[in-house]
Amino acid sequence: MDEARQADPGSGPPFPSASPPSTSPASASTALRRPRDYFRALRADLWTIAADPLPPLSRPRLLRWLPHVLVCAVALMLALAGTEEIRSGYHLAPGLSRVLGFLQGGAVVLALRRPVPAWWLSLAVTVVSAEAARIAQDGVAYGVSVLPSPAPESSITPSWPWTSQGIMACAVVLFLLALRVSVRASIGVLALTALVTYFIQGIQGATSYSPTGLLAVLVFATVVLVGAALRGRREARTQLVEQASLTAEERARRTVLEERSRIARELHDVVAHHMSVISIQAQVAPHLVENPSEELRENLAGIRQNALEALTELRRVLGVLRSEDPQDPYGIGSGTGDAPDSPQPTLARLDALVENTRAAGLTVLTEISGDARPLPPGVELSAYRIIQEALSNALRHAPGSTVRVELTHFPRGVQVRVINSRPQQPVPPSPGAGHGLLGMRERAAMLGGTLVTSETSCGGYAVAAFLPRSRDQGPATGDDLPHPTGPRD
User: Fold this and answer.
1) CA distance 332 to 324
2) Which helix (H) or strand (E) holds 66?
3) Are 420 and 402 in contact (CB under 8 A)?
4) 444, 400 in Cβ contact below 8 A?
5) Minimum mean pLDDT range among 17-26, 118-127, 416-425, 476-485
6) Is the distance from CB of 133 to CB of 166 less than 8 angstroms?
7) Angle at 125 between CA 164 and CA 224, to 5 degrees
8) For 197-206, 384-393, 429-438, 470-479, which range has the lowest pLDDT when averaged over its residues?
C-alpha cells in the first residue's frame, strides 16, 4: 500500500515510518572527526614555538630594524610603568612587583621571535598578579609580602584583573601574534584569553577594585582583527605577485607558441608546393622513358603515393595550427589579412609593400645591392616578413619618419636592414603591439640566421638581419654580419 501511495501523486504523502532514519557509520565518524581534527590542530597551534620573525623594513636600509627598536623601547616603558602600577595599585612587595613588570615587558620583546610563548608568558603574568592582588586584598598572605594599606581618604581604585599596562603589553603581543599565525590560532588565543579573564573576574571576583575584563577583551579583539586583516592583506599581495609572475611567464610562452604557429602555417605552403612537384614528377616520369620496367613504375607510384599522403598530413597539421590572423590597420599586408588562402609573398612583391607603406604616410627609400641569386622559398618568405614587420613597427612607433630599406645579396645569403629616423609626430598608443620583434627573431633563428635591433644615434630605430641560404653553411662572418646602426643624420 505504501508503494501504491508513492506511485499515485494525488494520494498524499506516504505513512511515516515508525523508526527514525538511520545514519551510516561512515557519515557519523566523519561528523565526529571534523571537530576532533579542528581542536587537535588548534592545540598544536597553541603549543607551537617556531614562527617567522618580524620582517624588517626594506627601504631605506638605515631603518630596516626600526620596528624591532620601537618594540623594544615600548617593552621597556611598559615594564617600568607596569612595575610601578602593580606596586602602588596592588600593594605587593617591590621585588615581586619588579619581577612581574619586567616579565610583562619581556613578553613583548619575546613576541618578536616567538609570539605564542610570549602570549603564554603575558597571560601567566596577568594571572599571577591578579591572584596576588586578590590574596593581598583579602588579607591572606600565603607567604606573599604586601605593603601597608592605602590611606582611607584615597578614592582611587586600582584596575583588576588587567592593569592598564598589562592590557597594552598583551595587546602588543596579540597584534604581533596575529600578524604571523593563522586565523584559527588567533581566534583560539583570543577565546582562551577571554575565558581566563571571565574565570578570574566573573567567577572568583574581588572587592575594592575597578573591573577591566570587558575592556581588555574588547581591546584584544580589535588588535587581533587588525593583525589578521594585515596578515591576510600581506598574503594576498604575495599571492598576487606570484600570480602576476606566472601570468607573465604564461603570456610570454603563449606569444612564442603563437609566433611559431604562424611561421609554421606560412611555411606550409612552401612545403606543400615541393611535395606537389614531387608528386607530379613521379607521375610524369614513366612517360619520359621508353619501355620503363615494372619495378621503376612501382617505385615511382610509391613515391607519388607517399607524396600525396604527406600532403594530406600537411593539411591536417595546417588545420591544427590555423588561427585568426591579426588585422592589418595600416593596409600594408601585415599577416595574411582577409585572404588566408593567397600565395605566400616573396621578395618580388617588395615594391608593392613599399608603395602601400608610402600610401600610409611614411617616406620609404629602398636600396638593393649585390648580385641577386635565387633564394630558397623559406628564406624569401622570412626576409619579406621581417621587412613587413619592421615597416609596420615604424608606422606604429615613428609616424612621419623616413624609413630606409636596404637589401644586400651575398654569396652566403641575404642581409636585410630597415632603419627609420626620429618620429616627427606624436606617437599614438598601440595596444596589442609588442610581439613583432619576437616573431622576427623566431624567423631568423629558424633559418640559422642572426637579427640585431637597436636605437640609432639620431633617435630612430634599426632592424638588421642576415639570413643564410642553408643552415649547414656555418655562422656568418665578416661582411655577412648585420650592422644595425645607421648614419647619424
Assistant:
1) 18
2) helix 66-90
3) yes
4) no
5) 17-26
6) no
7) 60
8) 470-479
The residue among 156, 164, 92 whose CA lies nearest residue 128 is 92
Q: Which amino acid is at 482?
A: P
Alpha-carbon distance 365 to 419, whole Å?
A: 10
**Of 45 and 171, more confident:** 171
Measure the CA–CA gap between 385 and 372, rounded to whole angstroms.
19
CA distance 115 to 224: 13
CA atoms within 13 A on the CB side of 432: 5
The answer to whether the CB of 204 falls within 8 A of the CB of 132 is no
Q: How many CB atoms lie within 10 A of CB 41?
A: 14
- The C-alpha cell at 388 is 613587413
CB of 383 closer than 8 Å to CB of 410: no
Spell out a b/e string for 420-457, using b for 16 or more CB atoms within 10 Å of the CB, else e: bbebeeeeeeeeeeebbebbbbbbbebbbbbbbbeebe
Residue 207's pLDDT is what? 79
Main-chain dihedrals φ then ψ at residue 359, nearest 5 degrees: -65, -25
Do 165 and 82 meet the contact criterion of CB atoms below 8 Å apart? yes
Paired residues of 463 in beta bridges: 418, 453
Identify the pLDDT of residue 6. 44
Taking the whole predicted model, whether its pTM rises above 0.85 is answered as: no
| 336's grid cell | 595574411
Q: What are phi and psi of 433, to 5 degrees?
A: -85, 170
Average pLDDT rounded to a whole number, residues 43-54: 67
For residue 292, what are the contacts with CB-CB under 8 A and spacing of at least 6? 286
Across the chain, which distance is largest between two alpha carbons, in Å? 139
Neighbours of 333 (CB within 10 A): 20
C-alpha–C-alpha distance, residues 223 and 320, integer Å = 58
Count the neighbouring beta carbons within 10 Å of the beta carbon of residue 149: 12
What is the distance between the alpha carbons of residues 434 and 138, in angstroms, rounded to a whole number?
A: 82
Cell 615594391 -> residue: 351
What is the C-alpha separation between 398 and 70, in angstroms, rounded? Answer: 55
3-state secondary structure of 428: coil
Confidence of residue 342 (pLDDT cuts 50, 70, 90): low
Q: What single-letter DSSP state applies at residue 201?
A: I
Q: Which residues contact 2 (CB under 8 A, 6 or more apart)?
A: 14, 15
pLDDT tens per residue, range 242-289: 888 888 888 888 877 777 777 776 676 667 767 777 877 787 888 777
**Listed range (47-51, 300-304, 330-334, 386-390) with the worst mean pLDDT:** 330-334
pLDDT of residue 15: 37
* Grid cell locating 375: 633564394
